[in-house]
Amino acid sequence: MLLDPNLAYVLFVTGLWVAATAAYIPGTGVIDAAAAVALIGSLLLLSGLPTNPAGVLLLGVGVVGFAIIPFIRRRPLWLVVVGLGLQVVGSLLLYNDGMMVSPVLMMATLSIPLAYHTLLLMPIMQRQFARPAGSMERDAHLVGMAGRVIQTLNPVGTVYVNGETWTAEGRRKLKIGMPIVVVAREGLRLIVDLDKEKYAQLMAMGEAQQVEDTPIVSLRPAYKEKRKMDEAQQVEDTPIAQETSDADQRGE
Fold this sequence. Notes:
Blueprint: H1 5-24, H2 30-47, H3 53-67, H4 77-92, H5 103-129, H6 133-140, E1 146-151, E2 156-161, E3 164-170, E4 179-186, E5 189-194, H7 196-204, H8 220-251
Parallel strand pairs: 3-5
Antiparallel strand pairs: 1-2, 1-4, 2-3, 4-5
Helix pairs in contact: 1-2, 1-3, 1-5, 3-4, 7-8
């Protein structure tokens, strides 16, 4: 089967830009997965074509220039210009043996992502950084706040803290629904650990599972104490029923 070089090119560029989008909209997991599928699929197609590795590298670096913008304070115009320039050169050098990307398609894959970045991604990023003063104060005190896991941390996943969804890295594997506490913040990512006090309460009520790989020994006494209290309550209730039965028999 003859592979279409234009299809492989479009799929590769799309995967790169979807990956860049994940930097502007962190924490969903869906965007990251879509980017991985697109990139893997495009690389498989490119492997069956006379692909120039230098072209692939230049295209990747060109889009990475846009992806790092949310992580730097100054956003110089030259970074955008260099990124576009690298994408142009990478597109021209992508194939060997006289094979080339369609010039019309090349222009489309440069102009459309640029408009997408300018009109959609940048406003999203600006809204994230232009938070009200109250929100900034809350974010400054995220360390120590409690939350819960909404996407399994192994070690990276998603948590719900302070009324917002955050990409987070856990110090152990934490499943969906487990209580967490923020121990540090690194840019747009939170570093979290298990909220042991809340977890102990959930364990006592039978509403949580044991943490995998890292059993928390200190939680077991709380669970055992709850069981003892339940058993004691059952013991207290049992004699009453027995005494009533014995009295009935004596009355007869």
